[in-house]
Amino acid sequence: MKARRTPPVPYEMVDHTGDLGVVLTAESLSDLFAAAGAVLADLLYDPAPVAERETREVVLEAASSEELLVRWLNELLYLREVGEFLWKTVEVEAGEGTRLTATLRGEVFRPGKHVPRGGLKAATYHQLRIFRERDAWSARIIFDV
What are the start-end ranges of the E strands in 9-128? Predict the structure, then answer.
């Protein structure tokens, strides 16, 4: 099942020395990955002025949900830093937590229109946790700044 998110989405900042941590909750695993992409957008730039002019497709595989989440977030960081792509909408399908297909809708960064926020280097495995409680999925993610 696909999940679609547009920033802002609710998340909680986690105290972590020298790095930045977040905790987020979602209704499904696909929704968790979509929410993580929306949170990352919110951390990297102001998503409000981003128009949905272009799309980017992402397909990833990994051995576990945790590895897939790190690969996903680092792919988004790559798209932002190297391709200067800013996404407004994130649509994700995370099948069984080891394969992800996503469509990002947004546009290339334009000075004067877009407002960058703090820089992040990478999503890390440090204290990474994906867990399910009752009917909700949660993740704790630490980013290297």
Answer: 12-14, 19-26, 54-61, 85-95, 99-108, 122-123
For residues 3 and 91, give the distance between their C-alpha atoms in angstroms, rounded to a whole number.
6
Whole-model pTM above 0.90?
A: yes
Q: Count other C-beta atoms under 10 Å from residue 109's C-beta.
A: 15
Q: How far is CA 24 from the centre of its chain?
A: 11
What's the pLDDT tens digit per position in 39-63? Answer: 999 999 999 999 999 999 999 999 9
Task: Label residue 96 left, alpha or beta by phi (over 0 means left) and psi (-120 to 50 means alpha).
Answer: left
15, two tokens = 């105290």
Set out the domains of the chain in order of their start, with CATH numbers: 3-144 (3.55.10.10)
